[in-house]
From TrEMBL:
Annotated catalytic residues: R313
Residue intervals of the Biotin carboxylation domain: 21-471
Tree of life domain: Eukaryota
Region of the whole protein represented: 16 to 489 of 1187
Function recorded in the entry: Catalyzes a 2-step reaction, involving the ATP-dependent carboxylation of the covalently attached biotin in the first step and the transfer of the carboxyl group to pyruvate in the second.
ATP-grasp domain segment(s): 140-338
Protein name, per record: Pyruvate carboxylase
Length: 474
């Protein structure tokens, strides 16, 4: 009966009445997320355009598009960051909207602005949203302003080690975490255990941040002891209307990088969960947030929660939210970008509910027995997996595909859906065991170790789980 409500206001092509549907869209990315974007666009009746680098000329995302264009660039990564060429290709081919995916240009306000200036719709937040949330220190400032609890930390970047020392000695104490203000993907962070190692870590953090993110700004937070990482998915239509799509638990991390993600988070006090959902909505509503975003929190052993950042883009782990809510987030991004309001899309809070449990694992071409060194080469055998309740988001994987060293090593995402956590973990584990890839190493044994671990199945592991279980890394 609810499904009638969902369909009511869409036209035959699946767009909200009153919106301006796109005829042709570009996925400005590569790998599984480019394929994911083009699938969503295809279902909305759009023609799809891909871009690819020279190194990616034989990869899947190129062939999944109706049209694909080479971006000539000296650097393999640079091709996906080449704003002038990307805009030129889009204009020459009458692309109406660009979806940036995650990484690359997805959080770049200059790119969002360049799209706008060239009459192309950027399927993401406004340039001003990206400025507010792209810098973790301005995001913290906003959060504090609207009364969202943050980890005790410096109000802005610290410029010298003396400043850092003075701040820590004024009450926060050790351990602390130094974070690149513009960091992401678990990179640009250093935990400092004591005053003796502050200077060396501070200098390293600053130079690493400069090298990796083009901006050396570093700020300090208290290091929260063994927290859980809980995040809230939101959608906004730019008017201050926000709907949340509940939460995800991304506590299973290796070196601050997510490995297995679950929706919803288990074992959270209902009051704490509701407070986090409300805070995520209040913060993004205040910013008149447009499109999809994620508000990330840490929850400590006492059940207190702290805002850490907003990721103003679709995230790798968005699948688990889609599976438990039934809402297609990438299509929602296109629809919102086309001018639809949340109410036009029936995306009101009452219409969003969670059914069962979903878990996603990130299958990478990394060798756990060699410290997760990315592996490269030709895939000789590729036998995918499936079955009831299994969703595959694949990109580069097929027989004959060449895995190059130039990009992120994510090969595919496998997501399971079941009514209980135990069943979901068992389903995901079974699905992974069915997957066969020869020619490159996979992190599969590591993932299976996590999924079969009783503490993981129990549902309340914290971010130190993998570090405390070194046998998982063998
Ligand atoms: P990124 O933008 O690189 O993803 P985040 O700020 O989201 O960085 O942090 C990533 C992870 O690092 C968190 O999920 C958590 O495990 C750890 N972390 C970040 N800040 C803290 C903190 N103040 N205390 C303890 N752990 C932290």
């Amino acid at each position: 009966l609810r499904s009638h409500a969902w369909r009511a206001s869409f036209n035959k092509r699946g767009w909200a009445s009153g919106a301006k549907p796109f005829k042709k869209v570009m996925a400005c990315n590569r790998g599984e997320i480019a394929v994911r974007i083009m699938r969503a666009a295809n279902e909305l009746g759009c023609e799809t355009v891909a871009i690819y680098s020279r190194e990616d000329r034989f990869t899947q995302h190129r062939y999944k598009a109706d049209q694909a264009f080479l971006v000539e660039n000296k650097s393999p990564v640079g091709a996906y960051l080449d704003i002038p060429q990307i805009i030129k290709i889009a204009k020459e081919n009458k692309v109406e909207a660009i979806h940036p995916g995650y990484g690359f240009l997805s959080e770049n306000p200059e790119f969002a602005q360049a799209c706008k200036d060239n009459g192309i719709t950027f399927c993401g937040p406004t340039p001003s949203n990206l400025k507010d949330f792209g810098d973790k220190t301005t995001a913290r400032e906003l959060a504090l302003k609207v009364g969202v609890p943050c980890v005790p930390g410096t109000p802005g970047p610290v410029n010298t080690v003396e400043e850092a020392r003075a701040f820590i000695d004024s009450g926060v104490g050790y351990p602390v975490i130094l974070k690149a203000a513009h960091g992401g993907g678990g990179r640009g962070m250093r935990v400092v255990e004591s005053a003796e190692v502050l200077e060396e870590n501070f200098n390293r953090a600053t130079s690493e941040a400069k090298a990796a993110f083009g901006n050396g700004a570093v700020f300090i937070e208290r290091y929260v002891y063994k927290p859980r990482h809980i995040e809230v998915q939101i959608l906004g239509d730019g008017t201050g209307n926000i709907v949340h799509l509940y939460d995800r638990d991304c506590s299973v991390q290796r070196r601050h990088q997510k490995v297995v993600e679950t929706a919803p988070a288990m074992g959270l006090d209902p009051k704490t969960r509701q407070a986090m959902l409300n805070d995520a909505v209040r913060l993004t509503s205040h910013a008149k947030y447009l499109n999809a975003g994620t508000v990330e929190f840490l929850v400590d052993k006492e059940g207190r929660y702290y805002f850490i950042e907003v990721n103003p883009r679709i995230q790798v782990e968005h699948t688990v939210t889609e599976v438990v809510t039934g809402v297609d987030l990438v299509q929602s991004q296109f629809r919102i970008a086309s001018g639809a309001k949340l109410s036009d899309l029936n995306l009101t809070q009452d219409n969003v509910s969670v059914r069962g449990v979903a878990m996603q694992c990130r299958v990478t071409t990394e060798d756990p027995s060699r410290d997760f060194k990315p592996d490269t080469g030709t895939i000789e055998v590729f036998r995918s997996t499936g079955g009831m309740g299994i969703r595959i988001d694949d990109g580069p994987g097929f027989q004959g595909a060449v895995i190059t060293p130039f990009y992120d090593s994510l090969l595919m995402k496998v997501t399971a859906h079941a009514m209980t956590r135990r069943d979901c973990a068992a389903k995901l584990s079974r699905a992974l065991r069915e997957l066969r890839v020869r020619g490159v190493s996979l992190n599969k044994p590591f993932l299976l170790g996590v999924l079969d671990h009783p503490d993981f199945v129990d549902g309340t592991v914290d971010t130190s789980f993998i570090a405390e279980n070194p046998q998982l890394l063998e």
